Amino acid sequence: MQTQTQNPELTREKAEEYHRELLCAEATVRRKIFESRSRRGFSEGIKFGITAAVIFAITFVGMNFGAYSKQANFWFANLHASEITEIKVNQVATKLDKIKTKKIKPEIVKRFELPALFAEISPPDNRLIIPRLKIHAPILTAANADINLASWDEIEEQVQEALRFGVVNFPGTAKPGEYGNAFITGHSSYYPLLSGKYKDVFALLPQIEIGERIEVWQNQQKFIYRVTEKYEVSPTETDVLNDSNDSRLTLMTCTPLGTALKRLIITAQLVENA
Which domain holds residue 163? Predict the structure, then answer.
């Protein structure tokens, strides 16, 4: 019986081809594993981002809940008021249509006015009042703050302490009713765990309108201002503190709500000294 011998070169080629096939198969498996991990990693990254965004949003709203609840109540109150006004207008129009169809006899009505029995009572302290926004806050000064001698850090510390109890007439600026720039600042929102009942006193200040009435009681005297400007500045723009050549009231608070990215500035002119 004759034995069949194998060609060594053919055997080596087959081995090399088999090895290449194994390498290709291994590369394919690795690529598929990598693609699967990439897809899974991308999906997990999206899930993590969404979860982090939701947690951040809940935490942010929770920390500024008082200010946001004020804005929500203001919005719903205005919405309800507009609906009631529309209903009343429709009712009045209907009544007028009915009256037009009837003959009305002219009558002479004697008009008289009752004299004012009570004078307006001034608050015991200095006060800032914006009736439409229901802002009613005492005006304080930063105790012992010397704008010429103290450092800005010391002034800021004293202002922050005073803001716990109301809004603050910034040291170095005019007093309300005086000639010059009476600059008043207040919180729109602040850390919920810190004490103080005026942490969101200016939460609704962004809703103020040009021409709106602002009342200020200073030393038992009432001053009426009308809003003339509304704009935003960066925290580094301190020109808003500069004195003016008129009787001006400037209100400032942080914006957007819950951040200190910018400052909302409201300026108003003195129109009446009551």
Answer: 127-273
Half-sphere exposure of residue 149, counting CA atoms within 13 Å on the CB side? 3
- Whether residue 114 is contained in a domain is answered as no
**pLDDT truncated to tens, each residue of the chain (274 aa)?**
455 555 666 677 777 777 777 788 878 888 878 777 777 766 777 777 788 777 877 777 777 777 778 778 888 877 766 655 556 656 665 665 665 555 545 554 445 455 555 556 778 899 999 999 999 999 998 765 565 655 677 788 888 889 999 999 998 899 999 999 999 999 999 887 777 789 999 999 999 999 999 999 999 999 999 999 999 999 999 899 999 999 999 999 999 988 989 999 999 999 977 6
Tell me the one-letter amino acid at 195: S
- Consecutive H or E run containing 137: strand 135-141
| 223 domain residue, yes or no | yes
CATH number at residue 172: 2.40.260.10
Domain count within the chain? 1
> Nearest Cα to 200, choosing from 257, 150, 252?
257
